[in-house]
Amino acid sequence: MRLLIVEDEETLALNLKKILELKAFAVDWLADGEKAHTRILLYRNDYDVIIIDLGLSGMDGMTLTKSLRAEKITTPIIILTGRSETEHKVALLNAGADDYMVKPFSSAELIARISSVLRRPTEAQPVVRTVGDITIDTAAHRVTIRDAEIPLTLKEYSLLECFLRRPGEVFTREELSTQVWDFNAMTLSNVLDVHMKNLRKKLHNSGNSARFETVRGVGYRFVA
Fold first, then answer.
1. Which of 12, 95, 156, 159 has fewest C-beta within 10 Å?
2. How far apart are CA 157 and CA 183, in angstroms?
3. For 188-194, which contacts have Cβ atoms below 8 Å and span 24 or more sequence positions?
4. 127-155 pLDDT tens trace
5. Secondary structure string (H, E, C) spanning the chain
6. Rounded to whole angstroms, how far apart are CA atoms 14 and 16?
7. What is the Cα–Cα distance from 24 to 75, expressed in whole angstroms?
8. Considering the chain, what is the average pLDDT of its residues?
9. What's the number of CA atoms in the CB half-sphere (13 Å) around residue 79?
10. Tens-place pLDDT, residues 11-49
């Protein structure tokens, strides 16, 4: 899954990015509210969650949230704020935020909040999904085949999660790259191929009958 952090405090933003990437998220970071507004409108279907700091310089977090909702952006938004007054929290929710976190907060709480808002989209994605013999638990980042856990790297897990969310559909190489790697990553074609090869091998060695089909000139499809 792909996240966008809009935070002008560089140290905090980079720490959050590192923590979330260790949890298998692809994470982009922007420090400017207006640039974030433009990015989100251009790539409105690319992000699963947007994390916005309230105290941004220029276009602040409240204004950015209201503007995105006015533009029919339905992506879940979590606001980071230093204020804990009840009326302030109510104002954030009324502005269109799905959730908020009062600084300072723990990384475990942030990840739990992300998992929570991901269960609220218009088309809610189940936490545990089973396709054929494969079961994926997106909260625990755990993949099992007939109750036996399959050890996957973060990128292999992220790729498999994409396919299991839309089994039978063709993913272009570009789509897989943008879902699994962040916006600025230099994802070479052979890097994706290597991860796909390793993922195929692990599923095959587990005795699973599912397979990845290469659609020549386009990308890949998962067939259970």
1. 12
2. 19
3. none
4. 788 998 899 998 788 899 988 999 999 88
5. CEEEEECCCHHHHHHHHHHHHCCCCEEEEECCHHHHHHHHHHCCCCCCEEEEECCCCCCCHHHHHHHHHHCCCCCCEEEEECCCCHHHHHHHHHHCCCEEEECCCCHHHHHHHHHHHHCCCCCCCCCEEEECCEEEECCCCEEEECCEECCCCHHHHHHHHHHHHCCCCEEEHHHHHHHHCCCCCCCCHHHHHHHHHHHHHHHHHCCCCCEEEEECCCEEEEEC
6. 5
7. 19
8. 88
9. 27
10. 999 999 999 999 889 999 999 999 999 999 999 888 999
Nearest to 56 by CA among 104, 5, 111: 5
Give Cα 222 to chain centroid, integer Å: 20
Instruction: State if pTM tops 0.85.
Output: no
Q: Tell whether the model's pLDDT for residue 183 goes beyond 70.
A: no
Residue in the block written with tokens 């104002």:
91
